[in-house]
Structure formats: structure tokens, C-alpha cells
Amino acid sequence: MTLPMVVPDPSLPTHVMIWEVGPRDGLQNESGVIDTATKIELIDRLAGAGLGIVEATSFVRPDRVP
Q: Which residues contact 28 (CB under 8 A, 6 or more apart)?
């Protein structure tokens, strides 16, 4: 198997920023309530993995949450 050749594109940025929103967005989709200690552990592990930005919560009126 031959991999395709990668040609650098000078118009693209040299770095990307990963913005983790799992603790904020992702946990809203869970069927049950996630306890606070588990949420804190998840956030600590994401930060420990090197993610510099982790969105942990948002303050939104309940009628505005899908």
C-alpha cells in the first residue's frame, strides 16, 4: 500500500488549536447525571493529556439547551 504524497500548502496555518468541549457539550447527551467528582476527573485528565483549552461548563437558561 502506498500512502499519498503530502504537499505542504503555504496558505495553511502551521498550527491548529484544539478546543475540547466534551465536558460542556458531550456530557449533556448522557442519559444519566454525571457526578461532580467524575466531571472533575475527566477535566483533569484532558488537561493532563496536554489540552490547553477545556470548556467545562456554560451558563445558559434551561429553555435554551437543545
A: 65
Q: Which of 38, 11, 5 is nearest to 23 (CA)?
A: 38
18: alpha, beta or left, given left = phi > 0 and alpha = psi -120 to 50?
A: beta
| Better pLDDT: 44 or 62 | 44
Position 24 confidence tier, pLDDT thresholds 50, 70, 90: confident
Q: Which three cell numbers stand for residue 26?
A: 458531550
**pLDDT beyond 80 at 21:** yes
Asked if 26 and 42 count as a contact pair (C-beta separation under 8 A), the reply is no
Residues 23 and 56: beta-carbon distance below 8 Å: yes
Mean pLDDT of 11-34: 88
